[in-house]
Every structure is written in structure tokens, then in C-alpha cells.
Amino acid sequence: MHFDSLDNYYGNGRIGHTMSDDSKSDSQQPLNVGDPAPDFHLMASDNAECDLSDLKGEVVVLVFFSETFSEYTTEQVKMFAKLHRSLKRDHVNVIGVVTEPMTTIDTLVDEEQVPFRILCDFDRVVVQEFGVLAQHIDGLTMVPRPSVFVIDKRGVIIYRWLGEDHEIQPDIEEIAQVARAAL
Fold it and tell me: Within a domain: residue 9?
């Protein structure tokens, strides 16, 4: 695993961070800091439709969860719920993406009292567009690799974190700092 940064990405001292590794779990290369985030249209846990393009002009923290009811994901959901509450007043959107059926997502939202939107990418289109579809990871197949992308107001990726397995969680404080710096 290694860290990369894109110094002075905006010419104003903001730094985009990436965390990546050389594992063989990816079916394609994940998007990088500096890449435009692909638009998507998915159904949300609140039964609304969500298009990334509708959020242009706002900062988005996009989290890909690999499965719903594991200890790892439950811990991650709680971390991002806390992040959502701290960034909500700054109008930063925290959005999760899961590839399981909407009924499973609804159960997760209800049981964990998830305060942010969880989107259903059952067909794995968005997971593939962001390059985080894992062929095999921790005994699971064809699931999103645990990952986080922060997307700035222009729709450009300014931070990415890619998990290697279900052991290491992303640095929530770093994600919060990057999101706030993009405001």
C-alpha cells in the first residue's frame, strides 16, 4: 500500500490524497485524483432518485461498501454517519453505494439508523465506472472494494482511499479535512 498526493491541485495549496495498493482484486483501474467523477443515476434508500450531476456545485463524499451486514461495514457505516453529522452543516453530501438489492439496503438503513443516503447499484455499473469492482476480496466475489472518493464542486475527484481488505478503515479525519478544504 502507498500514499500519493497531488500537491497544489487547485494552485491554492489544497492537496488531493490517494491510498492505493497493487492487489489483484480490481477488474480495472480505479479512478484517480484529478479525474472527473462519472455521472450516474441510482435509486436511493429514501426511494428518491439520485444523479451525481444534480450535486454539482456541492462537495460529495462517495463511499462504496462491499457488503451490508458484516462487522467491518457496520463499523464503517457508523463512522460515516458521524462524518455526515459533522459535515451536514457545511452542506457536504455523504453518500453510500451498495450492490445488494434495495430491500437489503432498506434493512441496513433501518437497523443502523443510517442518516445519509445509500444508493443501490445492483447492476454494478457505477462500481465499474469508478473502477472499484473487486473480482475477489476477503472471500467475496464481484463486490465493491471498500473505497472512498471525495468529489469537489466541479465534479472532480480530489481524494480517494482504496481498502485492501476488511481490516483497515479509512481515515475519517483526513476525509473531513479534504471535504472542508474543498468548500
Answer: no
